[in-house]
Amino acid sequence: MPRQTRAQREWRPGQVKPPRSVKTLFASTVLCLEAVLMFFFSLMAWGLNQNESYAWWLFGGSLALAVVLVLTCAVLQRPGGYILGWVLQFLMLFGFIAVALVTAEGLIVPLAAIPGVAFMACWWYALNKGAQLDDEKLDRFRAEEALAENPTSEENKND
């Protein structure tokens, strides 16, 4: 017998699955795209400073932040998950500024902060719009549940 997940073991016939969170989907998408940004930023920062002693620190730190951004997707629905996401947003932005202050290319590297600010705006939009869509989706789910439980009620005949 193949191994089943917990959701598969707990499933019963007729059971309706609750809707998945759009907020989590949007937030995970933004975090993964930011991880890609940090990967390319690490390559750029290392390439521009490869003769300096701190080049590998820039490269490793940026890659580590990219990995943390991806891993944060797994804990978004746990308590403090979205707060961790906000912390990572500010850490990424301050990382761009710190790299600009440390490196000799201080005028070039801050341009990377522009996508950082744009992604922070995307993060804010993903959380707000995702929460709004989750509320609408939950209302629809409850209405469908009520309709399934009592399909002949007066309220349902009008629809």
TrEMBL record:
**Entry-linked Pfam families:** DUF4233
> Which stretches are transmembrane?
21-48, 54-76, 83-102, 108-127
Q: Which domain of life is it from?
A: Bacteria
Question: Does the keyword DNA-binding feature in the UniProt annotation?
Answer: no
Q: Spell out the InterPro entries in the cross-references.
A: DUF4233
Q: Which UniProt keyword terms apply here?
A: Membrane, Transmembrane, Transmembrane helix
Write down what this protein is called. FtsH-binding integral membrane protein
Q: Which organism is it from?
A: Nesterenkonia jeotgali
